[in-house]
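Re: the request from the purification team.
They wanted to know what the chain is likely to look like in 3D before they choose a buffer screen. I agreed to run a prediction and write the result into the notebook, where they can find it.
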Amino acid sequence: MTPFVRTAIIVELALVLVAIGIGWPLGIEPWRDLELDLRGMMLGLAATLPMVVLLLVCDRSTSRALARIRGLLDQLLLPPLRGRPWWELALIAGAAGLGEETLFRGVIQSAFRGWLGLGPALVIASLIFGLLHAITPTYAILATLIGAYLGWLFELTGNLLVPIVAHAVYDGIALFYFLRASPDDTIGPSEPTSMEESPR
């Protein structure tokens, strides 16, 4: 596992600790509405479909703003993930789903729902989610919409597992899709990338 992959996983999982740290003084248990059941998992898997459709539509668009996002992904995110095994990509996606949904839906949305009501809570949590993903203004807008969708799933089902699964599976699909679609990118057994990683 490369330092980039390890750091990505640690940062995403650290959001769980951030959620606990924010939620504790507010009296909010981040996983209070988490039910580990088959129904939640299946709903989460099904809920991935609209996001995947959006991904495909955006990737095939001729919009310069969307092309800029793809260019940044090709330059910044994809190179350190080239050649990594599928399970490392799955770990990154799973950590993102767990960490980000625990924080944004489990704590932030829940807190604002208690203070301001459902509508404002959904808007505020989605805007914060979008702003923290603002690699470009267009990406911030798309992330805000996805955040609103995930927040709506949480409120509709009452189970945090649904947006966690939807988020994680979508991220995994997106990583595999972009790596497969990018020239010279492969997903498979990783090769040593430095002297330190080579067998001794």
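For the purification team: The CA atoms of residues 130 and 141 lie 6 Å apart.
Please add any questions underneath this entry.
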